[in-house]
């Protein structure tokens, strides 16, 4: 595992230099998100926990960092015909918002089973919606058609150096806000977030541990780490709708080399952690956003002697876009 | 209406001097709560909105400011036998926590119909619970018995200069954080919060407007302002469980003189504003905490020419303690 702090430039799709460039490019657009903490959750976990609240980021998730870095990296000739992406979630809203700020069209291919609130976010930021079936095949074929028709350029949600670099700006902020951090727990899906976070954090502070948090029903990253190669799953089954993607060829090498462990948690642990985020922190998170807290409270983390001296732990609360319709219905009865 | 900035010292139960003293007394215990904002909510309301998030205060509500000021104001001889209060809500948790920090017992009389999450908060902070019936008569008689048995001193939730002064520290922080504020919208119940906020804000910035937000089903403050005397209601009916109290003899003169208007909103407007707090701001608020946003979006505020030039509006998000059981049940199905 390469965690001695000397990460060879050019080895991966991004590095500390591209992440610092991303920061300069996007810092006037993004929110510097606050760190929340709770003495109660510290006592429950036996550690000092620092919640980096990317749910307060524009668009309600960290995705705006990568999307704005990618979109503002485009030359005018590339940008003029707009951008396209296929996503059921936070990346779609982030691309819509970043494109709006750049003054170019965003074409968003959304599978018909996407959560209402995430579709609503795309509309709010002016993305032009094209519907697809839920399958990846349908998403990709509709996207290809849109690209052919419009000349728009594809912004991939994670397997892209500009996206990874944008997400990595979280670590630059975090280590400035709380320099004593010794561990960062990051939700893992396609790997864009954790790749950027790991590259920046280990470049700045080589001793830092990067732990991934993954739901049991979409544990391709844990399986990939165990097998030493990318494993994809025939299907996924988790309430964490943001964590269903699989690693890509650009994120996998970074995850393989820089992620110290993938902690797998059950959906019921995610719900319990969500409850704590709402009831203790008063922060409205989506299931994916709560998985870091679920991981730190899990038996497998708490009992692992390797993590016994993880004392100052940052938890990336990745997003807060969740349908709470049942709650509003209960009030309106 | 006395809003020319010259508020006579000693006229009310608190003043800018007692509020500044409170700040010095409590600032090492309390959180300086952050201000949140949303470009989307600014565009919806046509104003710049600054949400002062007291839901992130210790204990999940502004109440900890007043409770800690009152409890740390006590002489050792007064404090030694502990404190007592009767409350179904946030004041009870706040008194428990402040007493715990002072190292004295807190006896909390709780009506049997209190929300679970608020009882849980009292337990979390080590308050000793005594149950009463839901009526004020039962609450008071149980409290009296506890005082007789223990020698503990009563900490009233709002009708007390030390409580008013503690709550007033919000304005000191707010006007330091966002000096351009021209209007503050504050939930009103017993009047402790708005009294402190108004006294401090109008002392510092005489031109500032203080608007109260009150639910239709507990609109005693609006009726009192209209009648020129304290009006109490035979019953209340609102989802905002924190806003059911009536003005007291110490808060009424301040509300009468310094509150520019009471904006009355419907429960359905409160639910709509809660939804926006969760979905847009990603902040978990209780109904009472969302009422300020409901007020600024209401027809009666938006159409009133008197508030046309309210451009930079602070909204006090008073608390975030709410039972979301139905949500967790839906996930655990």
TrEMBL record, chains A, B:
The lineage of its organism: Eukaryota, Viridiplantae, Streptophyta, Embryophyta, Tracheophyta. This is Serine racemase. Its EC number is 4.3.1.18, 5.1.1.18. GO terms for molecular function: ATP binding; D-serine ammonia-lyase activity; L-serine ammonia-lyase activity; magnesium ion binding; pyridoxal phosphate binding; serine racemase activity; threonine racemase activity. Residues 27-319 form the Tryptophan synthase beta chain-like PALP domain. Its cofactor is pyridoxal 5'-phosphate; Mn(2+); Mg(2+); Ca(2+). Gene3D superfamilies: 3.40.50.1100. GO terms for biological process: D-serine biosynthetic process; L-serine metabolic process. The keyword Magnesium applies. InterPro entries: Ser/Thr_deHydtase_PyrdxlP-BS, TrpB-like_PALP, TrpB-like_PALP_sf. Keywords: Lyase, Magnesium, Pyridoxal phosphate, S-nitrosylation. Catalyzes the synthesis of D-serine from L-serine. Has dehydratase activity towards both L-serine and D-serine. SUPFAM superfamilies: Tryptophan synthase beta subunit-like PLP-dependent enzymes (SSF53686). PANTHER family: SERINE / THREONINE RACEMASE FAMILY MEMBER (PTHR43050), SERINE RACEMASE (PTHR43050:SF1). Belongs to the serine/threonine dehydratase family.
């Amino acid at each position: 595992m390469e965690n001695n702090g000397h990460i060879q430039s050019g080895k991966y799709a991004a590095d500390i230099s591209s992440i610092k460039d991303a920061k300069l490019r996007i810092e006037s657009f993004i929110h510097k998100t606050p760190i929340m903490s709770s003495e109660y959750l510290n006592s429950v976990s036996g550690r000092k926990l620092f919640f980096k609240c990317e749910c307060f980021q524009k668009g309600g998730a960290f995705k705006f960092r990568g999307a704005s870095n990618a979109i503002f990296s485009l030359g005018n000739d590339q940008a003029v015909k707009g951008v396209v992406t296929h996503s059921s979630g936070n990346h779609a809203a982030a691309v819509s918002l970043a494109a709006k700020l750049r003054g170019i069209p965003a074409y968003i291919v959304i599978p018909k089973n996407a959560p209402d609130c995430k579709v609503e976010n795309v509309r709010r930021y002016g993305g032009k919606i094209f519907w697809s079936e839920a399958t990846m095949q349908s998403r990709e074929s509709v996207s290809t058609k849109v690209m052919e028709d419009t000349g728009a350029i594809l912004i991939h949600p994670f397997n892209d150096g500009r996206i990874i670099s944008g997400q990595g700006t979280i670590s630059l902020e975090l280590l400035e806000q709380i320099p004593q951090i010794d561990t960062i727990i990051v939700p893992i899906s396609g790997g864009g977030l954790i790749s950027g976070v790991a590259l920046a954090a280990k470049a700045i502070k080589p001793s830092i541990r990067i732990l991934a948090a993954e739901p049991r029903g979409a544990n391709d990253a844990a399986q990939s780490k165990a097998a030493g190669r990318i494993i994809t799953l025939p299907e996924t089954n988790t309430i964490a709708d943001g964590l269903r993607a699989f690693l890509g060829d650009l994120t996998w090498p970074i995850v393989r080399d820089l992620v110290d462990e993938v902690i797998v948690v059950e959906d019921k642990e995610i719900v319990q952690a969500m409850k704590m985020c709402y009831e203790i922190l008063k922060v409205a998170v989506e299931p994916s956003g709560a998985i870091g807290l679920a991981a730190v409270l899990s038996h497998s983390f708490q009992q692992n002697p390797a993590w016994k001296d993880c004392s100052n732990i940052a938890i990336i609360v990745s997003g807060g876009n969740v349908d709470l319709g049942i709650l509003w219905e209960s009030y309106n009865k």
